[in-house]
C-alpha cells in the first residue's frame, strides 16, 4: 500500500495474543475461500464465503469501506492473472489456467490480521507455477529476516535480490506495512532495499510482509474501476502476505 510514514506501535505480550487470534480467524476465513477456488466459481462467491466465516466469529474486514477513490466495496481483494492487488470481487468467473490472489483482513478485539495467498485454478502452465513458488519463497525469506536488530532494508534487499535472481520483478509502488490497531501503521516495508538501511526491527513490532511479484515488468497500472492494480504489460502476477511479529525467539507468523 502506498502511504505516508505512520506511527510505529510496539505490541505488548497481551496485544500479541489478540493479534494471534485475529490472524488465526483471518487465515481460517481465507482458507475457506481458497477451498472454494475452482473453474466456474465467481470472485463474488469467494468474498461471500469469507464473510460467512467472519460472521460466525462476529469479526469484520478492515478492507470494507477502506478510503480510496471510493470506499472499498468488499471484504477481500480478488486479483486474477495480471491483476496484482486490490481486485474487486464480482461477477468474474474463474477458469482453468487462471491464478487468483486473495488478500484478506480481519479485525478482532480491535486488532488486525492481514494475509494474502495466490492459488492456481485447475492446471496452470509451468512458468506461472514458478511465479507462484518464487513469490511464496520470497515471503518465506522476508519472514526469516524478522529478527531484532535487522533493518527494514535487510528485508527488502533479501526479497528483491531473490526475486530478480529468478527472473521476475517486484513492484516499487506498493509495499508491506506495520499492522496493529490499524491495518496500515509504520514502518513501510518495501520489497526492495539496501542491507543495514531503514528502521531497525525491535521486539513487539508486527508487520504485514507482502511480496508482490510480476512476470515481465515492475511497472503497474490502475484499471478503470480505479482500485484494481495490474501489471503494465499484462504479464501474470502473484502476491503472498503474512502478518508477522518480531519476537525475542525470532519471527512469529500470526496469520496461520
Ligand atoms: N493487504 C492490503 C494492504 O495491505 C489490503 C488493502 S485493500 C483495501 O494494503 F481495500 F483495504 F485497501
Ligand atoms: Co497488507
Protein model, in words:
- This protein has 256 residues and is of the alpha+beta class.
- Helix content is 28%, strand content 25%.
- The chain has a single domain, classed as Creatinase/methionine aminopeptidase superfamily (Creatine Amidinohydrolase, Alpha-Beta Complex).
- It has a five-stranded antiparallel sheet.
- The protein starts with 12 loop residues before the first helix and ends with a strand.
- The structure holds 2-amino-4-trifluoromethylsulfanyl-butyric acid (MF3) and cobalt (II) ion.
- Cobalt (II) ion binds at residues 114, 177, 208, 210, 241.
What's the topology here?
Elements: H1 13-36, H2 43-57, E1 76-80, E2 83-85, E3 99-108, E4 111-120, H3 126-144, H4 152-165, E5 169-170, E6 176-178, E7 185-189, E8 206-209, E9 212-214, E10 220-222, E11 229-231, E12 237-239, E13 242-247, E14 250-253
Antiparallel strand pairs: 1-3, 2-11, 3-4, 5-9, 6-7, 6-8, 8-13, 9-12, 10-11, 13-14
Helix pairs in contact: 1-2, 3-4
Bound molecules: 2-amino-4-trifluoromethylsulfanyl-butyric acid and cobalt (II) ion.
